[in-house]
């Protein structure tokens, strides 16, 4: 269970103060699939960064399974990201000089898993996302869709309970987008909690509920399919 | 996947940056090794040449002055010859040669000459070997390349400039240039001296000193012929200049309290100042090289951190701790330092082989101990230069991986 308790994030620049996020309370139960939509600058990515234990809020607390994330020391927060949280980025953020196989191994290296486990698990995950024949290719040698699938495999490396996805379909063609969303849905069905930031209403429709952010505040929550509403 | 493979692949991904960093280290280490190598051999060469200036410590009878020594007018005052053995057996570090002399004015064939008894170094060394000490052995503080007399056998003519001789038989003499010329004597001739026949071992080249009018013979022969007893007028000592400047004379005075021990100040000062100047100059160059190499490495590390901001952010989002990120950069610095240090040592040593004879007129050989110093310095400098950039990388905001699209 992820809980937001009166979270505010304020960026200060000299005398200027910009409120990036000003949520009241928010609860994301385990196994939920939440889509967050909203215009640019509405605080979506800030919310994701805070949820991902990467950016401390200015006020309030984030509780993960009852434990206050930002009361943990920096190394414990890094361990949290290694083991409990998986990230999917809009631009995939694969390490360009590593092969698909090696990119998937990186989170396991950080979690100090042995080489044999790393290799076995990476092979298994790349097979799962349909890239068994592209394991030893570098990102530049893969299509955009294949790169995002490598990123999905990497995200699953340490079997995280929570997946945070930042515009996971933003750079993809419709066919690949569908493929990625089907993977995310599958991961959610496996019991993982997914929080996805997106501009894409059709992607948001895969979620169980959709939160709309505006000027840093959650202004609405829908449980219906957005495209139908539109 | 290991941290090492990430570092290795990153280096290969950016070959230009890697080559530039490596070149900066190799060039610095090359220059460092070449300069140090040539300097060390130059110092030895200079020290060897300075040694040829002769004795820098004189052990005189209490009442004899330095002026008496230079005017060769100290014949009435003597000290016991056993002081030579005491000095040789003392094991004092920095004593490189001991040359006792007994000067007896005499008239031969109506011509006034100074018959000078000298003890060959082979006999002094025998005394020292009983004690097994440091005498005549080079030590770390002494940079001289050669001993004052070469144990393998110097030409007797060397006596003219080195004031000591390795071997001299009891029935052999060495003639000063003036005496030899005046009497038409040449090496191999024989000569009668105070009722005994001697063969001329060699004649010395003209030195423009009182030595030109001397006849040198074995000390014990002169003592016997002149019935002087077991005494000498002076003991000339060649001491390692650093040791002489750092208390060797006081130690000698403790061993031989009934003598006057003086240093030939200008010889010692020249030796010490030239050695110090060369050492300081080489350290100045090395400091500049280290600073330049370190600055290049720091600049390359900063550039690398900037270039890899997004990658670092991603690693942190995936769970890399600040310690891991710091290690990633520092391990790369160690790898570059190691490769640059070893390569720089090899190139620098080869360069020194050519530069030594060409620029400094000294023969140079590789110095294996410099490999450790060069590699250690290279690793230390790259580590220090990369530390701040590595800490900067470790403190980057991981949210970069979301923002910088």
Total number of domains of chain B: 2
Structural class of chain B: alpha+beta
Which parts of chain B are unreliable, with pLDDT below 50 for 5 consecutive residues or more? 131-138, 143-153
**What is the makeup of the main sheet of chain B?**
9 strands, mixed
Q: What's the alpha carbon Rg of chain B, rounded to whole Å?
A: 32 Å
As a percent range, the share of strand residues of chain A is: 25-35%
**C-alpha end-to-end distance of chain B:** 27 Å
Distance between the termini of chain A: 31 Å
The arrangement of helices and strands of chain B along the chain is HHEHEHEEHHEHEEEHEEHEHHHHH
- Number of E-type strands of chain B: 11
The H-and-E topology of chain A, N to C, reads as EEEEHEEHEHHHEHEHEEH
By secondary-structure content and strand pairing, the structural class of chain A works out as alpha/beta
In round numbers, the mean pLDDT of chain A is 89
Oligomerization: heterodimer
Largest interface, and how many residues on either side? A-B, 36 and 30 residues
Average residue-wise pLDDT of chain B? 81
* Major beta-sheet overview of chain A: 6 strands, mixed
Q: Estimate the strand proportion of chain B.
A: 15-25%
Overall 3D form of chain B: elongated
Given the structure, what is the number of helices of chain B?
A: 14
**Range of helix content of chain B:** 55-70%
Describe the protein.
The complex is a heterodimer of chains A (230) and B (405). The relative contact order of chain A is 0.19. In chain A, the strands form 2 sheets. Chain A has a 6-stranded mixed β-sheet, with helices on both faces. In chain A, strands 1, 2, 3, 5 and 6 form a 5-stranded antiparallel β-sheet that branches. Chain A is globular. Helix content of chain A is 34%, strand content 27%. Chain A is an alpha/beta fold and 230 residues long. In chain A, α3 (100-110) packs across α4, α3 packs parallel to α5 (144-155) and α5 (144-155) runs parallel beside α6. The longest helix of chain A has 16 residues, at 174-189. Chain B has 405 residues and is an alpha+beta fold. Chain B has 2 domains: 3-48 and 271-404, no CATH class; 63-257, no CATH class. Chain B has 14 helices and 11 strands. A 9-stranded mixed β-sheet of chain B has the order 6-7-5-8-4-3-10-1-11. A two-stranded antiparallel sheet of chain B has the order 2-9. In chain B, β6 and β7 (196-203) form a beta hairpin. Chain B is elongated, with a radius of gyration of 32 Å. Mean pLDDT of chain B is 81; it is low at 131-138 and 143-153. Chain A binds chain B through residues 45, 48-49, 52, 54-55, 74-75, 78-83, 87, 89-91, 93, 95-98, 102, 105-111, 115, 118, 154, 158, 166, and chain B through 1-3, 5-6, 9-10, 12-13, 310-311, 313-324, 397-399, 401-403, 405.
